[in-house]
Amino acid sequence: MRIAFDAMGGDFAPEAMVDGTLRAAREWPDTQFVLLGVEDEVKPHLAGELPTNVQLMAVTQHIETDEEPVKAIRRKKDSSIVRGCRMVKEGEADVFISAGNTGALMAAGLLVTGRLPGIERPALAPIFPTLTQKGMLVLDVGANPEARPEHLEQYALMGSLYAEAVLGFERPRVGLLNIGAEGGKGTTFTKEVYQRISALPLNFIGNVEARNVLNGDCDVLVCDGFSGNILLKNTEGVAKAIFDRLKKEFTRNAITKLAAAILKPGLKRFATEMDYKEHGGAPLLGLQGPVVKAHGSSDARAVFNAVRQARLYVEQQVITRISDELNRLEGDEHR
Amino acid sequence: MRIAFDAMGGDFAPEAMVDGTLRAAREWPDTQFVLLGVEDEVKPHLAGELPTNVQLMAVTQHIETDEEPVKAIRRKKDSSIVRGCRMVKEGEADVFISAGNTGALMAAGLLVTGRLPGIERPALAPIFPTLTQKGMLVLDVGANPEARPEHLEQYALMGSLYAEAVLGFERPRVGLLNIGAEGGKGTTFTKEVYQRISALPLNFIGNVEARNVLNGDCDVLVCDGFSGNILLKNTEGVAKAIFDRLKKEFTRNAITKLAAAILKPGLKRFATEMDYKEHGGAPLLGLQGPVVKAHGSSDARAVFNAVRQARLYVEQQVITRISDELNRLEGDEHR
């Protein structure tokens, strides 16, 4: 297996990307790792000799976090993001992982790697932390903000297959993000999606309200990219605000600092559970080849987790399964 | 001033409703309070003689939390919710407050109290807690899940006027909930809303991302009812999940319990800040008369806060101001 890596993307790049890759290279000596990066920037972090299964591939351009995605991938054809997506397209890599500009990665995935035949819109599918510690795959969180009902039908299918093959859920419970729990609730849009998903051969459990996401009420949550993005960012924002505010209370004086020190192991355990980075990256489901978005604030550990997940994504041949399932359903319809 | 009260709605009704009303009646002896409730259920909580400014008005029906809103208000015309909305419509009360079935209250507001001329869709506008402790008015959170851009334009106008008159914000900063910070981000829908609000005589600060809501990045946040509902329920759900989980860590053993006891005042202070109930109720903006939704889990204190806010809503003549502003803008357009 050959994994291409964006050495340039993410808040702690290139250092965290390099460290994570080297760690993964030691863990999986049978896997080839290709680091795509600007030589002058990456080299200083490659102390000593490279493991035989790691290779640096020089690129000359870098897409910044705040660049306009489509313009960036058109102008910077020799950036790590465009090169990585092309490697997957051309079979030079089995999977590409990047913690860089999310919009640019989605655009390159769509325009360079390309859609899987039969899929109308790819979806970005991160794993949300849940109190059950099993996590929940949520799709789409913004690859396609103006979704149509048939897109969400395909998300349900792709998400279920991925959750089963890569995340280890048995008959994943698929839920629809909605503003009421009972069937028949919501908008014209969600009502149509509900009907469509009901007709699929999935373990569809119906509507799930936003208040129950962290409880892990389902394993795969389907939503349009606009709502999904609101959900993702709000969850991150509320958790961050609460932890920041708690810190203020805990460091108020010497006594509270002492008390907080006693509670620290428990708080840390909880913070780890709530950490996106523990769960690996977010696949861009619906492309012809595996492209995975790692969290922007990925450290070496997050990179390592993303590799573990990406390996399963490839090994389990999820994309072939999605393609087969689409053909099978298509066949059923025409019978 | 005459305030009508739904004694039957909310998790702690009728007791909390009665207690809150009696407390408010003592605080504001110049205000008349009308408790709408089923006599047999409310009477036991009215110990001793009623203050001269509190009156029990008997109704014979009650709309439960899980009833289908429109059916319920059609079938139960002698329920507290329908009677209260009618009192406002007919000038028998200056404002109606209910902690009952939200959907039924919205339906009764729309169908019984009626829309303000010129307003296409009323909006439910709760106050979100913020780390700045000033709160943020968010509208709409579900009165109108299938909003059109012109509806959000009216929300911006109504929300700004309400936030200035009732919540004390000077030139309230109006933001648009969106999935990117820069102008031009988002969907066709949000782009059109952005243009429309930009053209209004408001302090519009542009897009606000869901991750920044608790930071209080704006004073009035405008969104469609579907996204707003997701935002509201997710915020509640994430906060609840985190506090529940912290409780588990804090009560793990005798030592952590002791440490938690030391931190308790700070945690309590924070929990109070984050408590919706501290901020009063959510007006249904865009109706001909003031109707206020109090939180379903309202206790006597929340009821009291809702009264304080409702009094300002009436005194500041917010509805007249909204109506005048609509006419003025209409006039400008036709000039």
TrEMBL record, chains A, B:
A Gene Ontology molecular function term of the record: phosphate:acyl-[acyl carrier protein] acyltransferase activity
Protein keywords: Acyltransferase, Cytoplasm, Lipid biosynthesis, Lipid metabolism, Phospholipid biosynthesis, Phospholipid metabolism, Transferase
Any Pfam family hit: FA_synthesis
Pathway: Lipid metabolism; phospholipid metabolism
SUPFAM superfamilies reported for this sequence: Isocitrate/Isopropylmalate dehydrogenase-like (SSF53659)
Chief location category: cytoplasm
Enzyme class, UniProt record, top EC level: transferase
Family from the record: Belongs to the PlsX family.
Assembly, per entry: Homodimer. Probably interacts with PlsY.
PANTHER family: FATTY ACID/PHOSPHOLIPID SYNTHESIS PROTEIN PLSX, PHOSPHATE ACYLTRANSFERASE
Record-given protein name: Phosphate acyltransferase
Gene encoding the protein: plsX
